[in-house]
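### Sample
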Amino acid sequence: MGAHAISFNESISWQFELDIIGGTLFWCNLAVEDRRLSFVAYDADRHGNFYISVWEVCDDGLFGRYVSGVYRHFICRWNSSGKDCGYP
C-alpha cells in the first residue's frame, strides 16, 4: 500500500482478501508532528473475522470500532509501541 499523507478530517479506506494459506498482516505507522505510533492493524492469525474496521486518530491516542459495534475502544496512547497497544 505504501505511505499515505492524510490531512486533518480526511480519511483513507481499503479492502483486502485473506491470503489462502494465512499470514495476512497490516502494520500501521502514524506520525503527527512529534508524536508517533506503530501497531498491528490486522493479523489474520490473531483477529480472523473479528477486527476493527474504523480507526480514529485523536489527540489522546488511537481508538477503534469493530465491524458491528458502535462503542469506541481505546487502543493506545501516542509514542507507544505495538506491544503496549490494547488491541487483542
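The longest helix spans residues 44-47. This sample (S-protein homolog) is used throughout the tutorial notebook.
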